[in-house]
Hints:
FAD/NAD(P)-binding domain; 19 strands; globular; binds flavin-adenine dinucleotide
Amino acid sequence: MIGSDSGDVWYKSTCHIDQSLWGATAKRIPNLQVLKSDIKTDVAVIGAGFCGLSTALHLSEGGFNVSIVDAHEPGWGASGRNGGQIIPGLKIMPNEIERRFGKERGRQIIETASSAPSLVYELIDRYGIDCDLKTNGWIQLAKGPEGSKTINSHLNQWRNRDVNVRALNKGDIERLVGTSVYQRGLLDSRGGNLHPLKYARGLAKACITNGVSIFHDSPALAIENMEGKWLVKTNEGSISAEIVVVCTNAYTGNMLPTLSQSIVPVLTGVVATDPLPEELNTKILPERQTVADTRRLLSWFGFDAMNRLVFGSRTNSQIESIDVTNFTFGIRRLHEIFPQTKGLNLKYIWTGRVALTLDHVPHIHKLADGLYSGLGFNGRGVAMATTFGKILARHAQGKIEDNEFLPLSPVKKVSFNRFKGGGIAIALTWKRMMDTLRP
Ligand SMILES: Cc1cc2nc3c(=O)[nH]c(=O)nc-3n(C[C@H](O)[C@H](O)[C@H](O)COP(=O)(O)OP(=O)(O)OC[C@H]3O[C@@H](n4cnc5c(N)ncnc54)[C@H](O)[C@@H]3O)c2cc1C
């Protein structure tokens, strides 16, 4: 047996997806079943977020028989809770990628990560996914001299690789974003934004159309190797498969403890207003790009299709509570960036877990023969987890070249994960202090 759930309640959450703006504005997928029998398939995928759904979709396109189990429902994890920002590239920048992985491999990693948004656009187009897609770029903003230096370096690194990134000065930012808090920024033409839960459910529907079986409320509780085949056991059924791909990211539980301890699952809070009145609507992000800043405790924001402002930042504590008192840090940031929003009703409040890795790079693992995993998207999973799905599908088919994209890496436990919420809280306090001292 590779892993079994020890009975913890990791897949439960006090914040249900329906409490989010996205849950309130996306249609459910009808007629999903709970796995209640013993079935056979070529590939079993655990977790129906962007990563698992994209893996299944790409495998189904290659003619494979695929089944997915999710502890809840498609998009229930970070994929249905995020900011919908389609961000090109990895968290680490191209020069650093080449330094770590060498020129040739580095170039391939940069190209794949750089074109990750295009894969999202392609899938949306190919399967007619209705998810409020906008492809008019992604904005990154910085405060203070250190932040401006970071933005200038990003601009140089992308321009050296012929990417269309536009520098933004304070005046541009005031016009394009509607705030005077930031001094420097960039507009990256590759990026865009979408309604994340509509996208996740759209991928799920595309999978179903291609013959993939998706089971909801069916947490995988154990993975066993049975004479060369894998058996994924759930409460009421099982899947026998040649290959298993684990796509549970920040919601990986005790079934695979080493995997769950290879990332730092940081709780992030999101608030959304009612539709903004016209005078704010036209001043804040009039062209409707989405934005993230470069602060250590970053803030990010954008709009939904009904002109509701969506704003995300760290929660006050790592305890999963959606009480407004857990969001005062983020709400202060919202009012600092957009003082005009003070007094607006925050109709929706929700949380989600972001999977961070200490090397700031997502990880692909071969946990055993025929058992793969991909996780650790460092807050960039809309494009990157979708891309990982395509890459994992190639691994599952044994079709990947040795030097293609990120190498398979060993699963390494993050040592301060042992401290769980405590360790994360100390790191966040340090980051908050540094944001104040050296913005
Ligand atoms: C608040 C927030 C904002 C973010 N904003 C952005 C953004 O704007 N842009 C961006 O690019 N990225 C963003 N991210 C990151 C992005 O959402 C994630 O990287 C991405 O969704 C990860 O997808 P995934 O499929 O790997 O994992 P998830 O979507 O988390 O899916 C994991 C799934 O696994 C299931 N699961 C877990 N254990 C089991 C089990 N044992 N059996 C069965 N199922 C199981 C869960 O129910 C869940 O559905 C954000 C994340 C959060 C939390």
